[in-house]
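Structure ticket #2291
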Amino acid sequence: MAEMLNGLKRTDMCGNVTAEYVGQEITVMGWVHRRRDLGGLIFLQLRDRSGIVQVVFDTDVCERELLDKASTIKLEYVVTVVGKVRRRIGNNVNPNMKTGEIEVVAEKLQILSEADTTPFSVGDVNANEALRLKYRYLDLRREQLQHNMIVRDSVCRIIRNYLADNGFIEIETPMLGKSTPEGARDYLVPSRVRPGSFYALPQSPQLYKQLLMIGGLDRYYQVARCFRDEDLRANRQPEFTQLDLEMSFVDQEEDVMQLTEGMLRKMFKEIRNVELPEKFVRMPWTECMNRYGSDKPDLRYGMEIQNLDGIAVKSKFAVFQNAVKNGGTVRAIVLKDGADKLSRKELDKLVEFVRTYKVGGLAWYGLGSEGVKCSFAKAVDAGELDEIKQSIGMAQGDIALIVADTDWQTAVVALGALRCHLAAKFNMYKAGDFACLWVVDFPLFEYSEEQGRFVAMHHPFTSPKNEDLQYMLTDPARVRAKAYDVVINGDEMGGGSMRIYNREVQKTMFEVLGFTDEQIAEKFGFFVDAFKYGTPPHGGLALGLDRLVMVLTDTTNIKDVIAFPKIQNASCLMTEAPSTVDEAQLRELRIRCESDD
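Resolution: structure written out below.
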């Protein structure tokens, strides 16, 4: 039978009771984590957010009635225990537990809430993930998930304190806004009072934060909830949180980058006791792609992409020669001491792996303990193999993995993905190492074959480099952006840009993107109108809070850092959202649902 607190107050959290408390009477409250009944002794492990403390019901100390009551307790009961702290003796001491030197000798017990047998053991990470998500509130009792939530709280607190110290103010922007083009698919919210009209949930507060700069707020930030109706991946959710900031009277990327570095240094020092470098590496986008095949390279290991075009153009191997002669490239990575590590079966798997990145295949050339192994040996002579070896610095035991393609970017992206795959396979980096860099000088535009036009690589309000303004209309592919992404351990933590604040430049940007005056007025009229009334130079950044907490907690699963996450199809197993609604609600919104039949 559940009991009331009846005025009892918790004096201490379970995990905070240490040897300093010996002899004191305390009141602790929590969930029963473990239970052992030895007849005259009953031991409980009592758990709360701070940790676990051992409680003992001893016939030498407590009355029989109390012992009988304790014998009815089951796992996950919520209880209050009043008792005195005493030292554990001999083998009873648990050095692996923060509270392992002491135990609480119970004098009073109240059962606040009983619990049925749980669908899985609380704390069991091997339990089916779908089951744990269905009963998420039970999985949240797990120590690691609670730690992740505490880290997330610490990150937000550090952000707020740091930005306040640097003159920023926190401002909320609307959740119900206007749907705009150029971006992921919006989540739409129907309007009851304006039938047929819809709000859009924000993909980011981009326009609002720029309007705040035009409104003279100078330095803004927000820990913002954002929504994108797109296919999910391991590190992506339909609703997510980002730190959003904007600052006025800046026109150099370095202004925002230095501020962000200082905030990240403070965060990693306080949470992980890790000293990040005083200045992160800066690397242009083109260099990133050429060296690492990625715009978010992991710098914790080498295995850089190398260029074999000079050899390939005169190669006797037609695949190499034709790729270069048709405007493409031949690139390679070298896996040190990898020739004997990769069997033929494993090499065949790597061929299939790179084909998923739209290249035709993978060639290899290894210097193994049993001699040379080469997939194209019959097409070339020993001299060409030796030239390849010298060109890319191969040593005995190494293997070169080579991709040829008529499209430069396709080739380097495939090798970049292979580089990451091999690094994970052969444990080329250590947990706790952090490599940080800024990727800069992105292209302002990229050509969309699907849409048959240029689209903004970031968004339509990103400023072009001053020296590239002259190419906006004549050679858009040549224009670089004042944009920057911060990358840690191969994951993009966030990015931003200097914004366009000149009316004519913004007009030219829309022109390159193919927007008519009518489309501009319809989609961005309120924003463009604001430019007429004085706009300061400004720039900003958004950091993905979820991804940042993932890095700080060493998890690769974004669901581990979100209290109530969605699954792959954007549904919630616990609440069963999304769900159908009453016909009356739909009628009120003037909405009719059509079946797929």
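Closing remark: The radius of gyration is 30 Å.
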